[in-house]
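[[Encoded backbone]]
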Amino acid sequence: MMEISSNTLIEHPFFSICIPQYNRTSFLIEACKVLASQSFQSFEVCISDDRSTDGREQELIDYLQQSGLSFIYKKQEKNQRYDGNIRGSIALARGKYCLLHGNDDCLASSTTLEELYQEIQKHDEVAVVVTNFEDWKTGQKVRRIRQGGLIGSGVEVAATHFRNVAFVTGVIVDRLKAQSHSTDKWDGSEMYQMYIIARILASGGSLLELETSAVRKDIRIPNESVDSLATKPKLNHCPIIERKLPMAMIGGLVSDAINPYLETKNRDKILEKVFLQLYLFTYPFWIVEYRRVQSWRYSLGVCLGLRPKHTFTNLNLNWFSLIKLYYVYTLLVILGLSFPVKLFDSFKPLLYMISKSLFFQRTLYVKQ
C-alpha cells in the first residue's frame, strides 16, 4: 500500500473531494485541473486508487504535486472494485463534507465549490446535498432535482429520494456520518453511495436538494474512452440464462439502510414503495437498454435475475405486498421485453419527468 499527500494539506477543509480512481488517468487529471481552478479554496482532494493497471500512476502523482492542490493519494493493497474504492476515498477525508466525484466527470465551473458552500451555509445541519448535472460535450442538463430546497429527513425521505444518487458525482454528504456508517455488506452492488445516503437520511440527517447544475458528466478526450455498456461486445448466439446484475441488489440495499429506523406499522408499505420505484422506473430502462445493446435473449436473462426471489431476499414482507410486487414484476417483464425500443425512446423523457416529479414523490409518502 502507498499513501502520498501534499506538503500543504489544509488543516480543516470544508470539502473533501472523494474520488475513486481506476485506469482513467487522463480524465482524472482533467477533472483535477477544474478543481485547481476553484475560487473557493477550503478543500482537499482524496483519491483512492484501486490498483490501476494503466501504468500512469506516477504521471497522476506528478500532476498532483505540482498542481497546488491539497491532496491525499492512496493506492489500495488489493483491488476492491467500485464500492470498496469509494469507501476508501471517504475514509481518507478530513473535511466537514465529502463531495463524491467520479474519475471521469468534473465540476461545472471554477465557482462551483463557492456556490455550493454558500447554499449549504444558508441551512443548519445539512447532512446530504444533491445537485443536478449536465453532459460534458453537449451541455444538456439532467434534472434529477426538479425543485430545490430543504427536503427534510427520515425514512420516507430516504425511501423516495434514493434514486437521485444513482449518479455519484455532485452528491455531498456529512463526512463524520458517512464514515460512521461505513460497511462492506453491500460490496458488489456498485451503489455504495445509495446505501450511505439512505442510511444517513433515515437516521435523521437532513436532505438539501439544489437545482444548480454543479457537474459536467463524462469528460471526452480525443482517442481515449472509458468502459461502458455500449462498448462491450455483443454476444453471438446468446443463451437464455439467469443474469444476476448488481442492480438486483438495490432494493435490498436501500431496505437494509432504512430498516433500523422503520416503525412496525409502516414497515411493509415503505419497503413496498422502494421496490415499486425500481419496477416502475429503474428496471424498465435497463431491460430495454440491454435489448438495444445486446439482444432480447440477453434481456430476458436480466429479467430472470431480477425475479422477486432474488430481490426480496430476507425482507419478510406481508403476503399482500408480495402479491402486489409479483404482479408488478410480471407486468414489468412483459412490457420491458415487448415494448418497441424506438417507441420507448420517445416516451423516455416523459417517464423521467414523471419519476422525478413532486407529485409522484408525494404519492410515495406514507402517512403516519
Observations:
- The first strand starts at residue 2 and ends at 5.
- The first helix runs from residue 25 to 36.
